[in-house]
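Case study 2.
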Amino acid sequence: MSEGPDLSARETLAAEHALGLLGAGDRAEAEARMARDSAFATLVDDWRARLTPMLDAMAPVEPRAAVWAGVERALGANDNAAARRRLRFWRGATLGSLGLAAASLAFAVLVVSRSLEPAPPPAAPPMLNASLMTPGEGSHPMFVAAYDPVRQALIITSLARPGADPGHDATDHQHHREDQQADQALAGPWQVVDDAVQ
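Prediction:
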């Protein structure tokens, strides 16, 4: 093997950069030097032009499968363990968020459905009753009046038999019945009922 000419440090750096032999730090330094020193950039391009024919003359060699597996393990870009850990974390966070959203939605539906239930109807107000009693010790009711607040109706019932009232006779009772019928026609929502006991 023949010995080549002695190269300056500048030429050695340019040749090693052209061959791709530099480490990451030295490669970054050479790239920065090429950007600011056009003469150095030309020197690197000259070395690439000289070395490229040598690469074309060499027959390609396929490495064994074990070599490729070792290269892939050595490269940080192919290390998926950290990515898998992050993926597991985000999957867990997504599932947790979905569970929380579903629980919140169920709670909202429950609150809304309870607020839409109809309120129980109010209790019906009691009917108001009044009666007109006969005078004396053996008094008994002659008329009973009742007000129904639900129907808004006044119901009047006579419990006296015709002629039972000493101040009235049957003719008066007939006039009274005609007066009641006239009152019913004018009463509107009021209802007048006369159920005389026969």
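The two ends are 150 Å apart (CA to CA).
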